[in-house]
Write a structure and sequence with these properties.
Layout: H1 13-27, H2 34-41, H3 45-51, H4 57-60, H5 63-76, H6 83-91, H7 100-115, H8 123-137, H9 146-166, H10 173-187
Helix pairs in contact: 1-2, 1-7, 5-6, 5-8, 7-9, 8-9, 9-10
């Protein structure tokens, strides 16, 4: 299929992202080229890169918006918070999505992240580590260095979200994370 001549009047980012996601699921992330995505989305490669600076951004696109909302909720409270409050506010966001299409898209993208090691090195995760470290640094009652606690929470939180995405019968990643953290606490030596 050839591309139409000239620039389209508007380009639907979500539709381009959906096209890429479908190709990643059919062919594999590593096996799908940017040229194939641009061709399937009926846009130029240049336009694709203008919308999504990297191939990984097609998967991670707008997930950082949810993180921004979560961390705004954490930092909006001027009082120091407990670790439990931080975890609840940061990892509850996907459960709050009311639109079933958004939930489906999030699950598909998280499944892809879990299955693709290259996607685990995205800048969104670097930002998450930084923001979690800052939030945890303000928390009360810590007995471990904030950076260590933050890295542990990010790893456990991302794992919980991926597990949630892979299991359609699980209600929320926050619930999965809470169960996991409780189990880890029970395993800690007294």
């Amino acid at each position: 299929m050839g591309k139409p001549r000239g620039r389209p009047a508007t380009i639907d980012r979500a539709a381009v992202r959906e096209t890429a996601l479908r190709l990643f699921e059919e062919r594999g992330y590593e096996q799908t080229t940017v040229d194939e995505i641009a061709d399937a989305a009926r846009i130029s490669k240049q336009t694709l890169f203008r919308l999504f600076p990297s191939k990984a951004d097609l998967v991670w696109d707008d997930l950082d918006d949810g993180l921004d909302r979560a961390f705004r909720a954490v930092t909006a409270d001027p009082e120091p918070q407990t670790l439990a409050q931080i975890v609840h506010r940061v990892f509850r966001t996907p459960a709050e999505l009311a639109d079933p299409a958004q939930v489906t898209s999030l699950r598909r993208r998280l499944r892809l992240v879990g299955a693709t090691p290259a996607l685990m090195r995205h800048t969104t995760l670097d930002t998450l580590h930084e923001r979690m470290t800052a939030a945890v640094g303000r928390a009360t009652g810590l007995s471990a260095p904030p950076e260590l606690v933050a890295r542990t929470l990010v790893a456990a939180g991302l794992s919980a979200m991926i597990w949630w995405a892979e299991h359609d019968d699980v209600d929320s990643p926050a619930h999965v994370l809470a169960l996991t953290l409780r189990s880890l606490a029970e395993a800690a030596p007294a």
